[in-house]
Amino acid sequence: KENYWLDVTDPTESELTWLGKLFTLHPLTIEDIQSRELREKCESFRNYYFVTIQTLDIDEAALHFNIYSIVMSTSILTIHYNQCHHSETVLRRFNELKGHVEFTPDWINYAIMDTVVDDFILQWKRLEALAESTDELVFNHRKSDETDLLKQIGSARKAISGFLRILKPKAYVVRSVQKRIETLKANPNGLEISLYLGDIQDHILTTLQSATHYEKILSRAHSNHLAQISIEITQTGNKLNEIVTKLSVIATILVPLNLITGLWGMNVVVPGGEEPNLIWFLSIVGFMVVYFILSGLYFRSQNII
Prior knowledge:
rod-shaped; 305 residues; Beta Polymerase, domain 2; alpha+beta; single chain; five-stranded mixed sheet
């Protein structure tokens, strides 16, 4: 029998039930597909193995959906509930590699996983550029950009964390498929497919290492930036305290002088008020000047002003 590939988009429950009967699929497989199970995995059954891998929409990077692959000895059934370009990409590979590669169900499953991982690598390049620009901006930003910078750091860290969360399970899925193929000694192309899958795993691990590295860089940059803001707030508070201290000193000096001027300025009989000369007036003014100078010198010697 010749190998064939059946690709199904957005099947109904009745269609899934019919496919299950046609291909003798396990009820758990049908249940996972119907419930749109998000967990990525590779499960082995008597006559096939079932692969669930999460991909993303290239037009809407935030939209993630699963591709379910049921790989049998002479056929492969792929099911997804969203339109995706992976099938067209694999078909283009058929035309490019025709005559050089035997298109077995295992190879088609490998090609689908490879295109999915390629999309994530492309998405990572965008995130990597965002992480680098954000890291540089931490050290070269204006004071007016503090709020926007914090938002950008938070958004970049959130994007990378989400990227890591989705990419990490793929290494396990690829490794599980690789083990499954290696155990099937009757498969003549098993070794070659295993090498291809190993290449995918290398790409995933390299991307994971890079993403983890930049996540740590952004985490450190976030902490450094918050520490810098804390230092600036402390410095501003210290300057404000210095100003308040100086104002308090000035008030300490001026309040007694205001008291004296207030007492002698009242419209009542005061000492020296009936004297025909300016001795009292000049004495009071002189005392105020001397008090002001001595108070200023004292506070200056205490490094208060």
